C-alpha cells in the first residue's frame, strides 16, 4: 500500500514501545493531518501559496477523499491566511484518515471507555515494525545529514511537520536541541516551497495545546 502523507503522519504519532498513541502526541494531530494534505495539494499544483497565503487553483479534485475535502475548503477567488484551513476543521480530520488506514488493515479500531466512564475508540497499529521503520526513515532525514535541497517534498514534510508538533516518538527533546541547525535548514527549505503553512501549523498547535485540545474522534 502506498500511503498518503496524512496517513504516514498519523502513523508517526504511534509509540511502538508502548503499543499506543500517547496523549502528548495527539494534541494537534488533526492540524498535522490537514497540513499533510495541504502539502500534497501544493505538490500537485492544486493550490498556490504565493506571498504566504493560500488559494485553490483550478483542476480536477483529488481522488483521495480526505485530500479532496481539504481542497474543497480552500478559497477559490482571493488568497487568504493559512491558519483557518489548518485549524478550523482539525477536529474532523482524524476519523477519515484513520478509517482509510483501517480499511487497508494498517490499524484496528475497538470501542472502550476512558477511566471506565467516557466512550473512546482505541486504535492499534497492526504492523508496528513498519511504523518503527518509518520513524527511523524520518529521523534519517536529519541524522544522515542529507542536503535539504535533495530531499523530496514529502520526506521533508514528514520531518518538518512532526518537529513543529514536537512528536516525541519521533523527536526527543535532546534531538531538537542537538540538531537545531539541521532542523532549521529543513524548515527553511519547506518554507521556500510552501510559504506560510509551517507557521500556521505551529500557531494552531500552540493554541490547541494551551487549552488541552487539538484532536478528534
The proportion of residues forming helix, as a percent range, comes to 40-55%
Distance from N terminus to C terminus (CA atoms, Å) equals 24 Å
Mean pLDDT: 92
- Total helices: the number is 10
Residue ranges: pLDDT <50 for 5 or more in a row?
Answer: none
Derived structural class:
mainly alpha
User: How would you describe the shape?
Assistant: globular
SSE order in H/E notation? HHEEHHHEEHHHHH
Describe this structure in words.
- By secondary structure, this protein is mainly α.
- It is 50% helix and 9% strand.
- The chain contains 10 helices and 4 strands; from the N terminus they run ααββαααββααααα.
- It has helices at 5-12, 29-43, 65-73, 83-87, 94-103, 128-143, 153-164, 173-178, 180-193, 197-210, and strands at residues 47-48, 55-56, 107-114, 118-125.
- The strands form 2 sheets. Strands 1-2 form a two-stranded antiparallel ribbon. A two-stranded antiparallel sheet has the order 3-4.
- Strand 3 (107-114) and strand 4 (118-125) form a beta hairpin.
- The chain is globular, with a radius of gyration of 17 Å.
How would you summarize this macromolecular structure in one to three sentences?
The chain has helices at 5-12, 29-43, 65-73, 83-87, 94-103, 128-143, 153-164, 173-178, 180-193, 197-210, and strands at 47-48, 55-56, 107-114, 118-125. It is built from ten helices and four strands, in the order H-H-E-E-H-H-H-E-E-H-H-H-H-H.
Amino acid at each position: 500500500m502506498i500511503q498518503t502523507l496524512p496517513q504516514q503522519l498519523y502513523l508517526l504519532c504511534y509509540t511502538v514501545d508502548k503499543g499506543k498513541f500517547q496523549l502528548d502526541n495527539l494534541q494537534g494531530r488533526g492540524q498535522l493531518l490537514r497540513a499533510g494534505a495541504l502539502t500534497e495539494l501544493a505538490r500537485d499544483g492544486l493550490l498556490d501559496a504565493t506571498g504566504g497565503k493560500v488559494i485553490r487553483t483550478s483542476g480536477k479534485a483529488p481522488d483521495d477523499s480526505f485530500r479532496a475535502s481539504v481542497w474543497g475548503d480552500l478559497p477559490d477567488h482571493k488568497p487568504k491566511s493559512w491558519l483557518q484551513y489548518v485549524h478550523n476543521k482539525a477536529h474532523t480530520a482524524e476519523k477519515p484518515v484513520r478509517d482509510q488506514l483501517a480499511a487497508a488493515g494498517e490499524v484496528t479500531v475497538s470501542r472502550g471507555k476512558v477511566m471506565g466512564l467516557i466512550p473512546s475508540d482505541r486504535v492499534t497499529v497492526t504492523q508496528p515494525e513498519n511504523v518503527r521503520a518509518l520513524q527511523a526513515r524520518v529521523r534519517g532525514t536529519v541524522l544522515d545529514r542529507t542536503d535539504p535541497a535533495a530531499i523530496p517534498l514529502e520526506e521533508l514534510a514528514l520531518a518538518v511537520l512532526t518537529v513543529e508538533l514536537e512528536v516525541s516518538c519521533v523527536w526527543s527533546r535532546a534531538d531538537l536541541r542537538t540538531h537545531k541547525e539541521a532542523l532549521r535548514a529543513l524548515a527553511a527549505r519547506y518554507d521556500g516551497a510552501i510559504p506560510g503553512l509551517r507557521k500556521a501549523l505551529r500557531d494552531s498547535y500552540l493554541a490547541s495545546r494551551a487549552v488541552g485540545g487539538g484532536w478528534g474522534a
